[in-house]
Design brief:
By secondary structure, this protein is an alpha+beta fold. It has one domain. Helices cover 22% and strands 37% of the residues. It is built from six helices and ten strands; from the N terminus they run E-E-H-E-H-E-E-E-E-H-E-H-E-E-H-H. The protein has a six-stranded antiparallel beta sheet. It is globular and about 50 Å long.
Length: 213
Amino acid sequence: MRRVAAAVALLLFGLASAAAQVTTKGPLSDNAVTPAEMGRRLEEQALQVKAMGQHADRIALVDFAWPTTPEEYRANAKSVIVLIVVVSSNEKEIPLKQAYVRANGRTVPLQRIASKRSTIPEDAAVASTVGRFREDSFYLAPASAMMRKGDLLVDFAINRSGFRLYELPGTPPDFVRADRNPSPPPGAKPDATTLRAAIEREYPGFDMTLDLR
C-alpha cells in the first residue's frame, strides 16, 4: 500500500504586516500525484490566502511516498521519495539551497535527484497571491530520518532558511517499521530502474532527468 503524506507551508503577511508561518497536513492518500494536482493544491491554498485578505512571499508543498514492497525498499537503498514544490515572489530564492531533516539535535540532508523550474501564468491565483517562480524537485530521504520525531525543512537560496515543511515522524509501512536498521547502507545507491519506476508510478507526468551521483 502506498503511504503518502502531504503538507503545505507558507509565510503569511496580514493587513497589520505581522508575519506568521503556517503549516498544515493533508490526509494520507493512495492516489498518484501529478503536476496538475500539485498545481491545483497551489491554487487552492492561494485562494484561501486571498479570501483572508493576506499574501505570502513563498509557499511550499511536500508529498512523500514510502516503498511499496520490501524488494523496492532494499533496491532503493532504504530511501523515501520526497517531492517538494515551492513558489516564490523572488526568482533569486530558487533553486532551493537544501532540504533536510532535523531531529534529536542532528541534521540529515536529503539528496536532490531531480529539479525543474517554471514560471506560473499571470492569471493564476497563486501568481497574484504568492508569486510566479516555481520549482519542482525530487529528493531521497533515509527512511530512518523520516521515522524520527523532528522536522522536514528547506533553505531557500536567499532570504529564508529553516523553512518548516512537515512535522515528522511519517507513517511507514510495516516492513519498514520492522527493520531494525532503516538507514541506507554506507555508500549504497538506489537502483536507477527501480527508482525511476517508483517515481513514474507515484508521480506520473513529472518529466525530469534523474541525477543519482
